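Try it yourself: sequence plus pyridoxal-5'-phosphate, in.
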Amino acid sequence: MKKLTRDNIDNIKPYEPGKPIDDVKRELGLSEIIKLASNENPLGVSPLALKAMEKSLADVYRYPDGNNYCLRRKLAQRFKVDIDNIIIGNGSNEIIELSVKTFLYEHEQVITSSPDFLIFKLATLQEAGKVIEVPLDNFYCNLDKIYEAINEKTKIIFLSNPNNPVGTYIEEGKLKNFIDKVSEDVIIFLDEAYCEFAKNISEYPKSLKYLSKPNIIICRTFSKAYGLSGLRLGYGIANKSLIQAMNKARQPFNVNMLAQVAGEAALDDDDFLNKTIETTEAGKIYIYNELNELGLDYVPSATNFILINVKRDADEVFKRLLKMGIIIRSMNAYKLNNWIRVTIGTQEENRTFIDSLRKIIKGD
Ligand SMILES: Cc1ncc(COP(=O)(O)O)c(C=O)c1O
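Structure, out:
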């Protein structure tokens, strides 16, 4: 029988998400689980978003607005851009996929850092494109080497800023130099999934000022600071012609009705956003201090997670924490063998994580 699957799909190594809470409960017979594996919001859902969804529940027998008009209008007002500069996605994951699907021919290439958000690679391979990976320079994005890697086949450069899984960011001046010198025939995709946690850092780029360029896509999400991961809601901001093209490549009803109303309400929930950022900052300081006491290195983070060197096999630490009811991420899959990535949780969750980690580190 002839092989049915396309080669590029056959060769993909599936994305492994953070382990779901219910799986761990079932597999280990535990009832209480702390999940610090997917950079979700420890405070839950924005209360205003929850109320908006409750109000819309009975309307879900209708199709959603395929133009996502109200949410786009609200985002446009917030960012002082035109509504046609915005596209809404089923998670920012869809914006990444759409950019590849819309702009990349099969013979063209994508450049990304290594490590960086794995979906950049996955989305490219799904469309049979080629991925060039440029190693980070001591945990920081190496824009010089990325620039050197550009050739006539390069179509998209994916930069997560701040970087997931590392947590570092590209400074304003460096990003500006890079954008200035890269040819406008190459799309620079700025994935700012964690920008809300970085926005008070003076050197963190204010990327919206590059919107007048024809080759910049900025991508953000409601999954992290706004606490709406389960709804799948993200957006892209770019030049109108890029947005128009991406709209042609998406499903007509790509974003569900509850996500649209929740996103709008979440944008009004300044209290929730501020509390999220405060909780994250306080948690980060607490964890940094405890790690210093334990003598463990970490990468200072501009996000809601921390990359930690546990000085032993990360898979082992992952398994031992799992048995204690704590889900984190081993970075072995990212070739960072002694490193784990931990989402900052509530203060109680952070304390439980640190107490459990201490037992592993001291008990060895
Ligand atoms: C850098 C980065 N980009 C994009 C995403 C995707 O987020 P979502 O599809 O939930 O909007 C994530 C999620 O972890 C991420 O870390």
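One thing you can check immediately is this: The chain has two domains: 7-44+271-363, 47-269.
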